[in-house]
Amino acid sequence: MKIHKLALTSALYASASTVSCSQTINVSNEISLGDSIAQFVSGASGLDGPKMDPEINATSFDWWYFDAVSENNSCAVVIVFYMTTDLGFPFVLPLSTLSVDIFATFEDGTLVFLPLNDLPLSAGTAKVVTDGDGSSGIWEGTGFEWKGAPDLSQYVVTIDSPLLGITGTLSLNSVAPAHYPCGSNQADQNLEVSPHVGWANAVPDANAIADFTVLGRKLQFTGPGYHDKNWGDQPFTENVASWYWGHGRLGPYSIVWFDVLALDGSEYVSSYAAVNGSIITASCSGIKVRPMGKNSQYPPVIASGNPQGFHIDLDLGSEGILEVNVTSNVTLADAILYTRWSGTMSGGVKGGIVYTGVALYEEFKFKL
Ligand SMILES: *[C@@H]1O[C@H](CO)[C@@H](O)[C@H](O)[C@H]1NC(C)=O
Ligand SMILES: *[C@@H]1O[C@H](CO)[C@@H](O)[C@H](O)[C@H]1NC(C)=O
Ligand SMILES: *[C@@H]1O[C@H](CO)[C@@H](O)[C@H](O)[C@H]1NC(C)=O
Ligand SMILES: *[C@@H]1O[C@H](CO)[C@@H](O)[C@H](O)[C@H]1NC(C)=O
Ligand SMILES: *[C@@H]1O[C@H](CO)[C@@H](O)[C@H](O)[C@H]1NC(C)=O
Ligand SMILES: *[C@@H]1O[C@H](CO)[C@@H](O)[C@H](O)[C@H]1NC(C)=O
């Protein structure tokens, strides 16, 4: 596994000599030529900051992801800010380097999916400011932006897009500490959740308030929310054959799961559980996620179809193994190679209390 330290360029630290420790990068809607180096070892701060230097070449990617699901799992919103071409990550609009997505799911099951390029005609740029561990970003020309607190306690995503017919905010008040693939938020942590794929989970669980108007319809709910970012220095599909990821709240537990298969069949995992604002486990071992019920072929291939749900065994250390069934209810996005759901969770430590809760989760499958 190749590990690169981030080359700290003067551009990245341009404002470091002025106020506090905030750093600003401006990224134009152009592809950088040459190497774009990934940060795969954590620094003392900047958990949610940009991780490719420079942002971005034709085959690298760096994105910021936000979501929330309603307490009864029927409504959801997912918003993503991308710095990538479709060579880096195949699900963005062709010819874009800067783009955004919103997926809004209404109570009656209606899904609105709207992608938008950072308008080339407006010579759009993206600006990301890193302050402490938090970040704030503006994708100029789209009307999409987010603001994060330096201590990661709060995030607000704001959309004001007359072009898409969307206005509103997603507010996240964190209830679970940030972490990296193999441990808590501290310096010198490994940042690769699987080879060449970086992951930093700024907000593993939050009390979310979604308040949007989408194409004239209100989308308003409260429920668990989440924010993370991924990045990589090689095309996503050159390193990922399939992956299961998700998060949710089960009784007192905030949990996040990752179970990835590389192209050579190697499995990489990350497990996270917190209770009452304290981490019980944050590790790149101690978890197994498998499809459950109908279409539960493992490893999954493109033709497998969508499983009914997932079974998760998550090692809580001295507290035992948390055994969770996740059952899909609403399909929030479906592109065959990629599916996202909301659903219910049921489980607990064997022999203990059985809790229920809601989850938002996804599957990629690229293998024929
Ligand atoms: C980024 O762009 C803003 C104007 O939008 C400018 O004030 C700032 O100096 C630029 N920062 C860097 C690091 O280029
Ligand atoms: C992007 O940068 C990576 C190094 O991090 C390099 O391996 C890759 O070849 C570059 N891509 C292009 C198209 O230059
Ligand atoms: C599934 O979602 C529907 C709305 O699409 C909701 O009415 C129903 O309560 C949900 N069922 C379960 C079991 O969560
Ligand atoms: C589910 O939650 C949404 C948002 O709070 C609400 O509009 C809807 O009425 C709820 N549905 C049920 C079946 O409780
Ligand atoms: C969480 O904290 C509350 C209040 O401090 C306490 O009553 C409760 O037992 C805690 N729950 C767990 C699972 O530790
Ligand atoms: C999880 O699903 C399995 C298989 O259907 C079932 O045997 C088990 O009782 C379920 N556990 C919980 C906690 O729902």
TrEMBL record:
Residue ranges constituting the AsqO/PenF-like C-terminal domain according to the UniProt record: 238-365
Species per Swiss-Prot/TrEMBL record: Hyaloscypha hepaticicola
Sequence ranges assigned to domain Diels-Alderase N-terminal in this UniProt record: 38-231
Pfam families, per the entry: AsqO_C, DA_N
This protein's UniProt keywords: Signal
SUPFAM superfamilies linked to this entry: AttH-like
Source taxon at top rank: Eukaryota
UniProt entry tagged with the keyword Transmembrane: no
InterPro entries, sorted: AsqO/PenF-like_C (IPR057722), DA_N (IPR056402)
Keyword Transferase appears in the UniProt entry: no
Name the UniProt record assigns to this protein: Hydroxyneurosporene synthase
Leader sequence segment: 1-22
